[in-house]
Amino acid sequence: MTTEIEVKKMRRRTRRRRRPTAAKELPQIFFCGDPHGCFDQINQAAREYQPDALVILGDMQAPAPLEVVLEEALQYAPVWWIPGNHDSESDEMYDNLWRSKLGLPMSAVYVLRVWAAFFAARFGCLMIPPITTARPLSFVG
User: Is the pLDDT of residue 37 over 60?
Assistant: First the structure.
């Protein structure tokens, strides 16, 4: 017959010890939300911090073609973007986004949305500021 102490010992599960992992060097990626036509802060952040990539999260309402308003930022990092609900309010805004040199095919936009959703779920919703890290594949450089 087993005693109460022996029963408790049998119920204990052995704990798996985690192996120590080396710290991973993650690249800096800036997520910039809803500039609504004002790209000064994005250009300034690219100039000051020189990130590995910039991702603009919708509602750009670019006053000129995207490669023009982000000319300074493009000198420091590749730029990705996801269209927002205000980016097709006029033909001019649509053309400044989709017909610019930074225009992405729809398949790339879908991949970028999935990628951004994964990192938002993993690391939280990210914008400038704060500055965060992650790593996409670059479509535009």
Answer: yes
